[in-house]
Write a structure and sequence with these properties.
CATH superfamily of the largest domain: HUPs
CATH architecture of the largest domain: 3-Layer(aba) Sandwich
Shape: elongated
CATH topology of the largest domain: Rossmann fold
Strand content: 15-25%
Distance between the termini: 17 Å
Number of helices: 8
Radius of gyration: 20 Å
Number of domains: 2
Helix content: 25-40%
Strand order of the largest sheet: 3-2-1-4-5-12-9-6-7-8
């Protein structure tokens, strides 16, 4: 397996600059094509007024289309001269929904936590749950991804096993891979599972080591983040947990906390 097609949401202006640079860095490294996606939500009925005339509706639609066109120009400028195949897709609609719909074309989505830009990026939580692809969620300023050290947050679940499979192209490039179980209630059982994961990785030519850690006063996400920081990790790999509720996704504690707090890039899969 390899990443041969990478998808990234591009909003106009500076909010997307680091994210596109990160996606472009990965596209070069994996000799993949890079697909930029422009999207802009258009809701003509947002006003308190009981009626919005057709001229106003057209004006709002034109402004939304202009934002998408500006995003394309911005993406073109950021990728000019790139030694990779670059494509562009765009349409009106909620950004996360549009990007998820374009997931048919890709192997990996590059996303970022909120940047505070006036044109918000596609919500990474929605992309994780709706796209069916691994999603790399990076801090807003991250523009590249060294892969010297990777920490795998292990729990014996379908999502964690899926995340390891999704991360194999990155794991193969790493100098150091750690399989870590935090809040392990049965240390012996946890280490047995970790050794099985290490053997799986060895079959792919990946050398790894593992450790299990007992309970602490911190949350599981904070324990995992603390360990990754101590190891100077460049990336965390985890399974994502959530269930659907009317109109939203409700995330498990670790997934929620990492999406909110991680200052290290995290590769999520489910």
């Amino acid at each position: 397996m390899a990443y041969k097609s990478i998808l990234v949401h591009v909003e106009p202006r500076q909010g997307a600059e680091a994210r596109v640079a990160l996606a472009l860095d990965l596209a070069r490294r994996f000799e993949a094509r890079l697909i930029g996606v422009g999207a802009e939500t258009f809701y003509p009925g947002f006003s308190d007024e009981p009626f919005i005339d057709a001229v106003t509706v057209r004006l709002l639609a034109d402004l939304a289309r202009k934002d998408v066109a500006d995003a394309e120009d911005y993406f073109s400028a950021l990728t000019q001269g790139a030694a990779v195949n670059v494509l562009w897709r765009a349409r009106l609609g909620p950004p996360a929904e549009v990007v998820a719909d374009e997931a048919n074309s890709a192997d990996l989505i590059v996303a970022s936590r909120g940047s505070g830009a006036d044109k918000p990026a596609a919500d990474p939580g929605y992309l994780i749950m709706a796209s069916g692809l691994p999603v790399l969620v990076a801090p807003p300023a991250a523009s590249s991804l060294p892969l010297g050290r990777i920490v795998i947050g292990w729990k014996n679940t379908l999502q964690a096993r899926s995340a390891i499979g999704a991360a194999l192209p990155m794991l193969k490039l790493a100098d150091k891979v750690e399989v870590v179980r935090v809040k392990a209630e049965d240390h012996v059982q946890a280490m047995q599972e970790i050794e099985e994961v290490i053997e799986r990785l060895r079959c792919h030519g990946i050398k790894a080591r593992g450790s299990a850690h007992g309970r602490s006063d911190a949350s599981a996400a904070n324990d995992l983040l603390g360990y990754a920081r101590d190891q100077h990790a460049n990336l965390i790999v985890v399974g994502a947990y959530a269930h659907a509720r009317i109109g939203e996704w409700v995330f498990g504690g670790v997934t929620h906390d990492l999406l909110r707090d991680a200052d290290i890039p995290v590769l999520f899969a489910r």
